[in-house]
């Protein structure tokens, strides 16, 4: 099992990583601004469900295989980038007016699934589980897969807390700006497009070294 000292050091590092705004936090914020607090919370739960899938994949060695295969890594990267760009274009093209706002309001189940997809297709998360988490795994301490699960769940707890802060904050901001529909639409759409570009560029330097 993971030693207490290793778990403490990992927890501090993980806390720092989840507090700093990243693609998942910005996605949750954009969804909350566009649709309100309930949608932001649903997207946060979806994102962390995606983290659970990454933990399972890392424990099974799938993340390693994807990151070591140029074709598989590129496919995941571009799928994630294109999906985020699609969300951005859809948001920007939704138009103004009550009908457009109603069309832009997604059922919470769909918002949840979007959060899962955004996180699962995020190559930065795959690289995190390969470059950062393994540094805290000690083969002499027992099953590496079990250690990955313990560390991954620790990260998940911090991630849920941070995501909920972003979700509730974005939901509040949405309420304050509810009358500025055009501004909300442009902010959300541009965030999605920016995340798509960031995802497309993710991992280029790491794979070239």
Automatic annotation (TrEMBL):
InterPro entries: LeuE-type. Its main location: membrane. The lineage of its organism: Bacteria, Bacillati, Actinomycetota, Actinomycetes, Streptosporangiales. The keyword DNA damage does not apply. The keyword Magnesium does not apply. It comes from Sphaerisporangium rhizosphaerae. It is found in: Cell membrane. It comes from the Bacteria. This is LysE family translocator. Keywords: Cell membrane, Membrane, Transmembrane, Transmembrane helix. The chain crosses the membrane at residues 6-27, 39-66, 111-133, 145-171, 183-203. It is a multi-pass membrane protein.
């Amino acid at each position: 099992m993971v030693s207490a000292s290793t778990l403490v050091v990992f927890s501090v590092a993980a806390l720092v990583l989840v507090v700093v705004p990243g693609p998942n936090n910005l996605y949750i914020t954009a969804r909350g601004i566009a649709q309100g607090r309930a949608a932001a919370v649903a997207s946060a739960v979806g994102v962390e469900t995606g983290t659970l899938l990454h933990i399972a994949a890392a424990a099974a060695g799938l993340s390693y295989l994807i990151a070591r295969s140029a074709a598989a890594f590129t496919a995941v990267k571009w799928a994630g980038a294109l999906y985020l760009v699609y969300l951005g274009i859809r948001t920007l093209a939704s138009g103004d007016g009550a009908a457009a706002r109603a069309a832009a309001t997604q059922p919470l189940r769909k918002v949840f699934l979007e959060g899962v997809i955004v996180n699962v297709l995020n190559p930065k998360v795959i690289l995190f589980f390969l470059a950062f988490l393994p540094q805290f795994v000690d083969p002499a301490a027992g099953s590496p897969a079990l250690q990955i699960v313990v560390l991954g769940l620790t990260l998940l707890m911090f991630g849920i807390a941070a995501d909920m802060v972003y979700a509730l904050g974005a939901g509040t901001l949405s309420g304050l700006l509810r009358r500025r529909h055009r501004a909300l639409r442009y902010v959300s759409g541009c965030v999605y497009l920016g995340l798509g570009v960031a995802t497309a560029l993710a991992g280029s330097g790491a794979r070239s070294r």
